[in-house]
Amino acid sequence: MSHSSVIGGAALVVGPLVWLAGLTTRHLAVTAATFTPAQAARLAGAEFDGPKELAAYAQHPDLVTAGYALFAAGAVVLCLALVTLARVAAARSPRLALAGGALVVVSLFARLYWAGVDHTAFQLVDRVGVDQATRIVMDIYPQISYGPWRLPVTAAFGWYLGVPLLGAAAFRAGTFGLIRLVLFLASATLWSGVLKASTWDGVASSALLCLALVPLGAGLLRGRTAPPLRSSVGLWTAWRHR
């Protein structure tokens, strides 16, 4: 078994599971927070999720930090996982695999930018208190959400375009059957942005992503090897001559 197959297979197993753990922990952290009726009404009337996320952090900083950290770690490992999926699918569908793989990886970079913004917002809570931190963050929320030159928010759209393209490539290559394709496509519904609430539909979409990718990773680890890493260099050539 090649080293690339071991790394890729492990990423396909670990990445979705860590992503799911992060979303689940984030959801549980917010539901564990207790608010007075007045606070609950104020938070429910907020336009964005940020105030509630910051309020939850003020009560359960370790749990919220763990959830956001796991989610960011999942994004990093998913980069490797989805590159591996693209390599496998490229054997039969190089154009779709290359386009879809590139788009989803770029979109995951945007999630890491937002992870930095989230962490900065939580640090403000520690420094100046939840009320002042909430005012500061929400006053500049559009600017920090879009990012410099709107690069992060633009890159994030790659997830919603890339998942269907990569799923189609995997289906054409026989890597995904119809059911696994549907499970994979469900992950394209996941929200993106700064201080977003993790709801049960987001947790469910990440669980479906696990069902789509973990068996593939387990298969690679059992010796059903992916194309060698050097074959990825030929993707562009295959694209041009197909």
What number of domains?
1
Kindly report how far apart the N and C termini lie. 29 Å
Oligomer: single chain
Number of strands: 0
The whole-number mean of residue pLDDT values reads 91
From the helix content, strand content and strand pairing, which structural class follows?
A: mainly alpha
Provide the helix percentage: over 70%
Largest sheet: none
Number of helices: 12
Approximate shape: elongated
What amount of the residues lies in strands? under 5%
Question: What Rg is obtained from the alpha carbons, in whole angstroms?
Answer: 19 Å
Model regions low in confidence, pLDDT < 50 over at least 5 residues: 225-241
Name the helix and strand elements from N-terminus to C-terminus, one letter apiece.
HHHHHHHHHHHH
How would you briefly describe this protein structure?
The chain is mainly α and 242 residues long.
Summarize this structure as a short list of keywords or feature phrases.
242 residues, mainly alpha, 12 helices, elongated
Structural overview:
The chain has one domain. Residues 225-241 have low confidence and may be disordered. α4 packs across α8 and α8 (151-172) runs antiparallel to α9. The longest helix has 35 residues, at 94-128. It starts with a helix and ends with a helix. 79% of the residues lie in helices and 0% in strands. It is built from twelve helices and no strands. It has helices at 3-32, 37-44, 50-59, 61-89, 94-128, 130-139, 141-146, 151-172, 178-186, 200-221, 230-233, 235-241. With 242 residues, the protein is an all-alpha fold.
